[in-house]
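Replying to the earlier thread about multi-chain prediction with a worked example.

Input:
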Amino acid sequence: MSTRNLPHTNGQTYLICLLAALAGLLFGLDMGVIAGALPFIADEFGLSSHQQEMVVSIMMLGATFGALCSGPMSGRIGRKKTLLIGAVLFVVGSLGCAFAPDLITLEISRFLLGVAVGVASFVAPLYLSEIAPEHIRGSMISLYQLMITIGILAAFLSDVGFSASGDWRWMLGIITFPALILFIGVLTLPESPRWLSMKGKNDLAMTVLTLLRSSTDDARKELDAIRENVQQKQRGWQLFRSNSHFRRSTYLGVLLQFMQQFTGMTVIMYYAPKIFAIAGFATTKEQMWGTVIAGLVNVLATFIAIGLVDRWGRKPILKLGFSVMGICMGLMGYMFFVGISSAAQQYTAVLLLLIFITGFAMSAGPLIWVLCSEIQPLAGRDFGVTCSTMANWIANMIIGATFLTLIDFMGSAATFWLYGILNVLCIVLTIVFVPETKNISLENIEKNLMSGKRLSQVGSA
Ligand code: BGC
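Result:
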């Protein structure tokens, strides 16, 4: 579609997308906050290293569980109600953390927050992909990633703010406020027209589409396409067992999320202060502010993706991003190998780290979520997105749990080189398997997939 012919998007759609993307903010806040809070929690409850690891990782466990449940749940009760349950869990979990009298209450609360994060990371991109018109779909889902990065940054800042007083209860508890805003915001959202149509509620779907699209004519056309698309009744697991084309898109979603995590970005986010320490920044203050700058670059570079995703397309941006990340990991590994002694070397290492973050934020950060929500056929979308979202959390756990061990075992240089190689592998996988889905409707992607086109071709018109 040429830019000249792009339909006008009504303002309501942007507002709705922004509200749904708020779920990403909570995701980011809860992911980012723990790094700064942990030392104080450990102090107050006298936690061993293993107990500290539990406080961190129980959230990922909850997220995997949340992602697993949200597929069937959002298929049955709808996207909106599922998101609402996620919002309630965010509120309950944050309050539970803030007032936890002991370790076990804290762990249960972190688990509940994890479930909320899992639900949010499943249902928000799915909802956005179903509500946004195709010419801005990529940017709207990238908006979700932008909110994640803003959440991470806000958490880093709040950690710095509360670190002087050591008040970890406030660090964790303050998240209750955005969680309440999410809850109220979600109450005002319309249900996804695709889900409504799937449930045979076509009149309601038409009402929502009329609200979202600039003309009744556009709304009618879209509803017709959706109705045609929801004819086939097979669903989820059943479809996975019986249809090899759907199996391909499910595996692709899982692969994409593993690729996102194996870039190494998540370890940079979890262990940024530690990496600044390896690069020779000795004081906690330097490390914390370095972490805030890393978070800020992550936010800013996401705008590059939002601006480019629907113009350049997904594939070229991904290839560029993986290349940038691969090169930076390789060079950082080299610097750790030869040793960092002078101030110039320290700052070069930081610069490389920031360029790496830029590479991720402008590519794999948002685009993997975009692609995962686009490639699944409607009849199996809940199942397919559940699998890919779970893969994100499982890969996240693997990465988080092995980084420090890898550094102890192979040294910093080799660990960074390993991630460099994984990024090169991601370029190859992108070329071979990833489709270009720019400016093509979800219905056409589905047609191509189900007619047996190669995965890399399912986005062509
Ligand atoms: C990823 C997270 C990552 C974050 C960084 C998200 O898309 O799923 O694992 O830490 O981006 O911005």
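The radius of gyration is 22 Å.

Feel free to reuse this layout for your own posts.
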